[in-house]
Every structure is written in C-alpha cells, then in structure tokens.
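Q: Can I borrow your eye for a moment on a structure tokenisation matter? Would you mind producing a protein record, from residues through to fold? Write it directly below this note and I will take it from there.
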Amino acid sequence: MRSIAFADFLIGLGILFVLEGLMFAASPNWMRKAMKSAIATPDNVLRVVGIGSAVAGLVLIWVMRRPV
C-alpha cells in the first residue's frame, strides 16, 4: 500500500503536467517566447525566482495540510 504522502506527491505531479500541457496547448507561441526569455535570464535571477516559488509552494501546502 502506498503512503498518503506519496499519493499526494503523485497527484501534485499530475496537476503540474495537466497545467503545463494546457499552457502549451492553449498558447504554444507564448510558451516558446517564455522559454526564450528564461534562457536569456541570468542564473542568479532564475535561482531567486525558483527559491521563491518553492517557498511559496511549501507555505501553500503547509497552510492547506495543517490540522484545523
């Protein structure tokens, strides 16, 4: 039997794939421009945005999963 945490992880990964797929399907040209922009962005800016996004995601998970 899989753990609840692993099932939650797989659900989150599935949602990520769905959202990414929808963005590519709805506006492939915009996604292409976004990827070109990411390539041109300096590494330190990408790191800060990545860390900020990860922290925001962890806070959102913590808020939603904490007992009431």
The helical segments are 4-26, 28-40, 43-65. DSSP finds three helices and no strands in the chain. The CA atoms of residues 61 and 67 lie 12 Å apart. Residues 4-65 form one domain.
